[in-house]
Amino acid sequence: MDRRRIRVLLVEDEEIHRVVARAVLRGAGADVDEAENGAEAVRLVRERIGGGGGGAYDLILTDRQMPVMDGHEATRRIRAMGVATPIVAVSSDCLPSDVHAFTAAGADDFTPKPLTKEKLGHILAKFQLA
Amino acid sequence: MDYSNLRRQIIFMKKSFFDQGYLDEQFNQLEELQDESSPNFVEEVVALFLKDSPRLLINIEQAIEKYPQDFYRLDSLVHQLKGSASSIGAVRMKNECSVLKAHGNDKNLEGCRRSLQKMKREHATLKQKLESYFQLLRQVGPRNSAVNSRK
């Protein structure tokens, strides 16, 4: 069975959250690209699906509050490109309205920060990436 | 050097952090992520927290004093501090952030000020405890430390 490493895009502006999520992702055997805001994320996704980009990401994890472009808008634009990659919001804002807003933008799931091995395990199993 | 005694001290100190409610399970999660390729991972994450949090506390204080002009900024700063505290399992600080947020939403300025003072005390205590902990860990050294021990 093909056990290639999964490719994850981590979208997060704050260093401490990037450091923790990066370690959790690498620990699960993923290759991680990082974007510090939604605009950078959209650019990386577009590059990936363009010719020679290596193919779409297997998973996108995104925060909500970020400078330049937030997670909702990035999700909307990624979906507008026709990209079906699972998008999971990893955010500290966990009210039902926050979850709903992300879902409405096109996210597939939502998990509160911080990212842990267990939470990532559930995500990978849910999207059959394990 | 008496490594077994130092290791006991480390284990006891860490246990006290949990028993006294300073840290929660997230701290253990960080220790589980530490390995030979990132042998100082926990200390690095804590260092990031200790680097960001003093500035956030100062900015929060300024935003409170400028209230209500800086309300959204206050909310955003407290949100950032809360997230940062959660990353290392600093549960008391995380909870106090929720209290401060609620006071802000209620326009309770005195409540905000009290909460901030409490957070500053919590932060100072936590900083001192964590710095002592990592100092002990450094004495024991990476080969001898029992950081991942779940006894």
Automatic annotation (TrEMBL), chain B:
Residues 38-133 form the HPt domain. Transmembrane segments: none annotated. Keywords: Coiled coil, Cytokinin signaling pathway, Phosphoprotein, Two-component regulatory system. One of its GO terms (cellular component) is cytoplasm. One of its GO terms (molecular function) is histidine phosphotransfer kinase activity. Pfam families: Hpt. It comes from the Eukaryota. InterPro entries: AHP1-5/YPD1, HPT_dom_sf, Sig_transdc_His_kin_Hpt_dom. It is found in: Cytoplasm, Cytosol; Nucleus. The modification Phosphohistidine is found at residue 79. One of its GO terms (biological process) is cytokinin-activated signaling pathway. Residues 109-136 form a coiled coil. Functions as a two-component phosphorelay mediators between cytokinin sensor histidine kinases and response regulators (B-type ARRs). Plays an important role in propagating cytokinin signal transduction. Histidine-containing phosphotransfer domain (HPt) contains an active histidine that mediates the phosphotransfer. This is Histidine-containing phosphotransfer protein. It comes from Brachypodium distachyon (Purple false brome). The gene is LOC100833386.
